[in-house]
Amino acid sequence: MSQNVLLASDSNELRGRIHDAAGGTSVAVSSHPLPVEPMQLLALTQHQTLPDVLVLDATSDAPSALGLAARFDRDFPGTGVLLIGDPVALSSAAMRAGVRGVVPEDAGQEQLRDVIAQIARAMQSRRLGIGAGAVGQPLDAPGRVLTVLSPKGGAGKTMLATNLAIGLAERAPGSVVLVDLDVQFGDVATALNLDPEYTLDDVVHGAALTDAIAMKTLLTLHESGLSVVCAPESPVAADGITAEQVNALLETLKTQFRYVVVDTAAGLEPRTLAALDHTTEPILVTTFDVAGARGLRKEIATLRELGMLTNARQTILNFADPKAGLSVSDIEATIRSGVDLTIPYSKAVTASLNTGIPLLQRAPRDPVVKQVRKLLGAFAPAAKPLQPFGKSES
Fold it and tell me: Where does the AAA domain start and stop, copy by copy (predicted)?
């Protein structure tokens, strides 16, 4: 029986023993420091599937290991946790945390192999036995759905959606998912430098639409801890994705994530309208030109007629340039609505999209980032800023 094992340990000796006990199928990541949230740990791996067995080295920091184990039991009941440590000292607390077993640091290879295989069998059986709609530990209330809209392409929706999602993931680790609903030409994966194993067309066909545990195994994990549903690689595959499937997808995601951020195609096609049925806060984006503003005015009027324009909406003016011959007041007069946020033009945005490093991480002092953080403040309380890639906290 194949088994997917993830080990969190800095011991090369233990890594080798677990790898052998797992039949050569284990993945190892560092355990110092041990992440607080499951999604933060999973983001350290290069795999987009959940492990059958998570092995945590609890020999040096048992409280952190027990805390992470309890969160895995809550959020991912299809993964069984095995602790490496003192069984006498840990067994009682481990049982309360939902841990499947505790083995001593000097456990023999046969014991490790048997325990891992036993837990893997139990978890795989548990996944098969979980019926549709079983979600482990759903949120007490549906999550907020933030949908980024624009009547035309090139308005900067993807830049806003990706940076908004990254910023929310910073403030609410493990609680944010980003969905690329530009099903034909979406480039969220490119903007985040992701190579997804599964994409939107995989997610909407099968049990994942109604089974949150199955759904989470198909999500792509970003290094920030953000979960992502990437657009299909082929525009042909996108033709089979219906508005009804989008409706079911968002219905499931908002039971599992505090924030669901949706990037959309230009205009108001059926899948976008399906997303708007779930949207708590629309984010309307226009460019700093007459054509863009007139397009947004029509979009606002259409949404108002459909009853989809909530009072919680945010209107964003992107690529603002004082030399363009227009003012913010001109744009507001054209769209017949106020502008909540003005984002300046910046060459750093293009560099960010080309490198796949979100602007919040690549250029945290850029003027665009300052405005994006203002937008974040409308949805989540402030937290310490992200460290730029390649740098670590001392």
Answer: 144-308
